[in-house]
Prior knowledge:
19 helices, elongated, Arc Repressor Mutant, subunit A
Amino acid sequence: MLLFSVLFHVLSFTLACVLGYLLLFVNKEKKISNRFLAIILFCFASQHLILILLASKLILDLPWLMRLFAPLTFVVAPALYLYFRTILYEEHQLRKTDILFFLPALLASVNFLPFYVSSHQHKVDALLQYYQQRGSVSDPGRGFLSSVWYYGLRTIWSIGLVSISLGILFRFWRKTRQPVKALNTELYRWMRMLGAISLVLALSQIFKAFLPSSGASDVNPADLLLGVGVFLICIQLFRHPNLLYGVYLPSSTLTSAPELLINLEKRDLDVDQPASEESQWLLTEEQVIFRKKIDDWMEDGKPFLKLDYCIDDMADELGLTRQKLSGFINREFGMGFREYINTYRINYFKQHVGLPPWDHFTLEAMAKASGFHSRITFIRQFKEVSGITPSAYLKQAKTMKSGL
Length: 404
């Protein structure tokens, strides 16, 4: 049983780390909600790492790791709440008061200060006592609070925030009209599943206080549930990679189903939402109209070729406010305005390489003909988007042409 538990934790740890890495460094959808999902996964991974080290007794060689990640267990619930909120309300930045959600994690660090500052031998002795007194020592490395108080407060904090998160999701979904629900069923089910698993894991923490694990042969139910829960979360994300984007009302579905044009009411939940014309929200029918309008304008008008083209110019040309256009591009294309424009410029460059009169242009001339202000900016942006330098791309294109 212990070996199975260790292997299961290793698997869940690996999956959580891989997905967290994909969200932070590979996923091109640079949204704040992705950051919070990555935080949740890394927090779960840190718990798995400690459980693996405890079960294998490798923690005796690294006693300073014990309780190092304990404060992160207070981060999961607020990260889940902010993940839900930023998706449902399409928030692109945090509020000043959001920092208060992470105060309990700081207090948890203070709680374990006695263990943190203790000597190496003291930490080892605490771990040895944990292994020897099976069933009577709930956890090695106690802080100011007893295990009952520590896990009790953590459970209450986690259950409270997870319940609020699920409440926001259910109220939002209840006020959303049926055609829109049809477009977002998969995302809703994912968020509901993530919230339900988080709630079960929060409830299971009470086992830590009243049902200690042996550390050598027994398996605590809370630890087993953690492994199963994280495994299910990771498998769901691997099966449905589009969920990693966390996009409400996905553009691909809307543009492929224009018959679903409806008036989507403003979300008037308990969280404040600005109702002015400057809001970043776009109604559903506006999304379809402006997506086509932007695509047509970029293809036919090619405004990206202007060296000083900015978001204000584009907003004036399309009849949108600057705020709405910025929010729309961020949500619809998963990038900022500058990155969006530079993507068109780079594609334009690739389309014209080797064609007259470009075959006689210098690299700087090509950059300016594509809309870039300077050669340096062009090289930097091209490498960021394509993964290679323009010179390397030109060399590849020349090789391919000569091969033909």
